[in-house]
Amino acid sequence: QLPTGLYKKVLVILHDSVLPYMNEPTLMMDFLTVAYGVGGAISLLALNGLFILIHQHNLEYPDFYKKLYSLLDPSIYHVKYRARFFHLTDLFLSSSHLPAYLVAAFAKRLARLALTAPPEALLMLIPFLCNLLRRHPACMVLLHRPGGPAAMSEDPYIMEEEEPSESRALESSLWEIQSLQNHYHPEVAKAAAVLNQSLSEMEDDISGLLELSAYELFDKEVKKKAADVPLEFEQIRGLFGKKNDIFAEHFSLD
């Protein structure tokens, strides 16, 4: 039983400072699978070590994707380890052998959670979702469903369902991304509008967006050179500022 702070520190360095130097890295299977089941930030940090054991040491984890799916909650867009989590999730969902219902469930859940996400997370998430759709053409129905979202009386997706195969994500659509096209941040609205067009075959590189911060986003906006906007100035007359208004005859602004 480790204190939470020490637990996190161990998991942060485990994948690159411990596992490569062990004669039998598989001895860490129980430790990492238990950590993966704890939930919250500890589960996110256990992903790195688990990935190495699954990828290089043939660890079998039958409910791996179900557990990964359960980690998707509103906090993933705000946690300190967001970049690490999405980098690994991108790797886990890169295989073309994954069933369409599973990828659709991840895409739909991420899109639903995006409705309350900050702009810096959305600028990473939208290309992330586009890459998922490129890799798994069977999920394109989420974008190009006949009739679109308007054809549905309600969204069939079951957000509370823990089992991805029972979430009915493939019967739904990504109407959340359409909503983001009206986002208050112009860069987010512009990024979301890409889905109105046919997606290119080339995947977007999200590596530079994983660690995008609110400060960097704000700094970028401040440093933009604004074009000179021509303004027409007309002297205000009267109460409501109209030239031939009856109020202008009886009221004046001093």
UniProtKB/TrEMBL annotation:
Residues 43-192 form the CCAAT-binding factor domain. Pfam families: CBF. The chain crosses the membrane at residues 31-54, 85-107. It comes from the Eukaryota. One of its GO terms (biological process) is ribosome biogenesis. The keyword Transmembrane helix applies. Keywords: Membrane, Transmembrane, Transmembrane helix. GO terms for cellular component: Noc4p-Nop14p complex; small-subunit processome. PANTHER family: NUCLEOLAR COMPLEX PROTEIN 4, NUCLEOLAR COMPLEX PROTEIN 4 HOMOLOG. Belongs to the CBF/MAK21 family. This is NOC4L protein. The gene is Noc4l.
